[in-house]
């Protein structure tokens, strides 16, 4: 039995690792052993990675030219089709490669090592454009469209955003009304649609105001009457990828092209984004690996003050941090993809965490790589400025990181709040007796730690001695986290929804706990399978130690800020500035 099979057997599919942290639980069986890709799929993946390298490595100058022009030429897109890159996640029975999310995420990672725009063209098709069809399509719909989507005859796009509706996705105005034949008439405009200029297959969300819900999803072909696209947008980054509006003017959509159930469009829209997050995460990891390669070579080659700049402490601090962040992002992205592949029922909070962490890690890493290159970093002749421009969008699209932080905090607290309510109903009445109720969440939760420590904490069993001190940090802060969750819920009740300063802190602790546990799991498994003698494993242990100590300091600060903070002053200051409409001070 492979590691992966062993892991699948013990995996708890009902429980969410991240949501359980809010209750003071660490779901140990979902952390150990850390998953590893084995067998035939690994071989196929290796073939795809090799062909990506062979095709993309010699094209660095082309990518600069496409960026400058803001376009990928048709012949280039055709080559991507021939390479099979539009077929990655489509099942073999429909002409695709049939990759799991883990292999797909890894393939996107490889593409991103060479070019962010190419990665986005492939990612918008697979991660979000056609995913609704894969997840919710009928057999007929799949039979009809998937072979064409695999060959690239049709490229997919995902159409949710509108001029008046970005983060507030439920407020879209595009309408779909049934005509007398049962077909649908679509009217409205979608904006900033990736692949919009050349996609033939659009997953479109529109208002149907059905009994079961306000939105529905549709499969729309470019060839349908009344469908058109606007001019290509001129963008800051990922400039070569195509972005445009998609317009529906009395567009006629056959009844058979309703995707999933009528009225379930919002659920479909969110499920697609959730399931697609590991593609974006993989792209971030690929971008970081590229930055680390560039930065380490630059630091060695560049001499100042008579020595390589890699000899300077400030440069070492950057390269080590870039490496820790990349390892951590890779650990959580791969773990989330594994949950998705293994049928874990609810991994939406983990997926949001992986997107937030990976996109921000890439942003910091690319910025540091540019800094290490000094003035060269700023010049178009070198790759850094484009990498920085290309990765800025990741923190904005597929759910802004602000919205995702709120999602992480509120989803976790909602579950914790439901437990508290249940306990309240059953007579413990914790809301009226804060002292008696203190620690209720922890007491109520179904404990998953296995050994009790002398401090009354329970211990993670999978962690070897080398990482015991680090495991202590996550055990201790998981309990602390459930305590402050409870304090906030008792203090604010449902009003917690409006307490964004507090929610942000909660989300940031959830991120550090989840990512830190993923890192511990990965390094513990490395030690168990490869031993701890090699330099590579020793350095991985060091990464786990660095990340854990940094996370401890961040979490400690967040916990303290729950009670003592400047939130009211900061809110008032922001209100003042917004009412002034400018910065009102000067020194003259
Ligand atoms: C290059 C590019 C490609 C894109 N591709 C696609 C695509 O293929 N398909 C598609 O449907 N869309 C696409 N988008 C749209 C993208 O998903 C949206 O830009 C994104 O969802 C944010 O919406 P918005 O730009 O309207 O920002 P807004 O929602 O107006 O947000 C503005 C700011 O306010 C913050 N904010 C908003 N609400 C809250 C709140 N409740 N609490 C706290 N802060 C809040 C946001 O985080 C953000 O910082 C793309 C966008 C770009 C730029």
Total beta-strand segments? 12
The CATH H-level superfamily of the domain at 402-564 is: Butyryl-CoA Dehydrogenase, subunit A, domain 3
Could you say what the CATH topology of the domain at 402-564 is called?
Answer: Butyryl-CoA Dehydrogenase, subunit A, domain 3
Question: Mean pLDDT, nearest integer?
Answer: 93
Q: How do you describe this structure in short?
A:
The chain is of the alpha+beta class.
Q: Can you describe what's shown?
A:
The chain is of the alpha+beta class and 588 residues long. Among the domains are: 156-267, Butyryl-CoA Dehydrogenase, subunit A, domain 2; 402-564, Butyryl-CoA Dehydrogenase, subunit A, domain 3, CATH 1.20.140. The chain has 21 helices and twelve strands. It has helices at 3-10, 17-21, 39-56, 60-69, 74-82, 101-112, 116-129, 131-136, 139-151, 265-301, 313-341, 348-372, 375-378, 384-391, 401-428, 434-437, 440-444, 468-492, 500-530, 535-563, 567-580; strands at residues 156-159, 175-178, 184-194, 201-210, 213-221, 227-229, 243-253, 258-259, 303-304, 307-308, 451-452, 458-459. A four-stranded mixed β-sheet has the order 1-4-5-8. The protein is globular and about 65 Å long. The structure holds flavin-adenine dinucleotide. Flavin-adenine dinucleotide (FAD) binds next to strand 1, strand 3 and helix 15. Flavin-adenine dinucleotide (FAD) is lined by residues 124, 157-161, 166-167, 192-194, 235, 243, 393, 396-397, 400, 402-403, 406.
């Amino acid at each position: 039995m492979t590691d992966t099979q062993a892991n699948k057997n013990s995996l708890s599919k009902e429980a969410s690792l991240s949501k359980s942290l809010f209750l003071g639980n660490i779901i140990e069986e979902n952390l150990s052993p850390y998953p590893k890709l084995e067998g035939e799929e690994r071989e196929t993946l290796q073939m795809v990675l090799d062909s990506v390298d062979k095709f993309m490595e010699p094209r660095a100058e082309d990518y600069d030219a496409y960026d400058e022009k803001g376009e990928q030429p048709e012949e280039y897109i055709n080559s991507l089709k021939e390479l099979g890159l539009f077929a990655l996640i489509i099942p073999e029975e429909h002409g695709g490669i049939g990759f799991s999310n883990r292999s797909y995420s890894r393939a996107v990672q490889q593409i991103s090592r060479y070019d962010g725009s190419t990665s986005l063209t492939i990612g918008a098709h697979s991660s979000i454009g056609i995913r609704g069809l894969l997840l919710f399509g009928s057999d007929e719909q799949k039979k009809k469209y998937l072979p064409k989507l695999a060959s690239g005859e049709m490229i997919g796009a995902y159409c949710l955003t509108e001029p008046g509706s970005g983060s507030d996705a439920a407020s879209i105005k595009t309408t779909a009304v049934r005509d007398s034949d049962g077909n649908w008439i679509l009217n409205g405009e979608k904006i900033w649609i990736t692949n919009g200029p050349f996609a033939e297959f659009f997953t479109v969300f529109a208002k149907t105001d059905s009994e079961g819900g306000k939105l529905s999803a549709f499969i729309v072909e470019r060839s349908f009457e009344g469908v058109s696209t606007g001019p290509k947008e001129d963008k800051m980054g990922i400039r070569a990828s195509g972005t445009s509006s998609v317009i529906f003017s009395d567009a006629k959509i056959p009844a058979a092209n309703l995707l999933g159930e009528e009225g379930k469009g919002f659920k479909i829209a969110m499920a697609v984004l959730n399931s697609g997050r590991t593609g974006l995460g993989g792209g971030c990891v690929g971008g970081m690996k590229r930055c680390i390669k560039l930065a380490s070579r630059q630091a060695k080659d560049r001499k100042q003050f008579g020595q390589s700049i890699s000899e300077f402490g400030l440069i070492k601090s950057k390269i080590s941090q870039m490496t820790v962040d990349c390892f951590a992002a890779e650990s959580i992205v791969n773990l989330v993809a594994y949950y998705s592949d293994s049928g874990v029922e609810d991994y939406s909070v983990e997926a949001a965490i992986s997107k937030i962490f990976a996109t921000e890690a890439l942003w910091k890493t690319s910025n540091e790589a540019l800094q290490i290159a000094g003035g060269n970093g700023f010049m178009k002749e070198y790759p850094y400025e484009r990498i920085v421009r290309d990765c800025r969008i990741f923190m904005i699209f597929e759910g802004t990181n602000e919205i995702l932080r709120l999602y992480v905090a509120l989803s976790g607290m909602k579950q914790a709040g439901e437990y508290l309510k249940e306990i309240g109903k059953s007579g413990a009445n914790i809301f009226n007796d804060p002292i008696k109720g203190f620690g209720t969440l922890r007491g109520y939760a179904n404990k998953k730690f296995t050994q009790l420590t002398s401090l009354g904490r329970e211990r993670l069993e999978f962690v070897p001695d080398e990482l015991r001190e680090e495991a202590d940090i996550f055990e201790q802060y998981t309990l602390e986290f459930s305590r402050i969750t409870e304090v906030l819920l008792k203090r604010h009740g449902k009003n917690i929804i409006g307490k964004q300063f507090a929610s942000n802190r909660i989300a940031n602790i959830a991120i550090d706990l989840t990512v830190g546990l993923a890192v511990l799991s990965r390094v513990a498994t490395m030690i168990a399978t490869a031993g701890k003698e090699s330099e590579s494993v020793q350095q991985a242990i060091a990464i786990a130690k660095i990340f854990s100590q940094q996370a401890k300091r961040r979490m400690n600060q967040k916990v303290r800020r729950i009670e003592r903070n400047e939130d009211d002053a900061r809110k008032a200051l922001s209100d003042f500035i917004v009412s002034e409409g400018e910065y009102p001070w000067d020194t003259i």
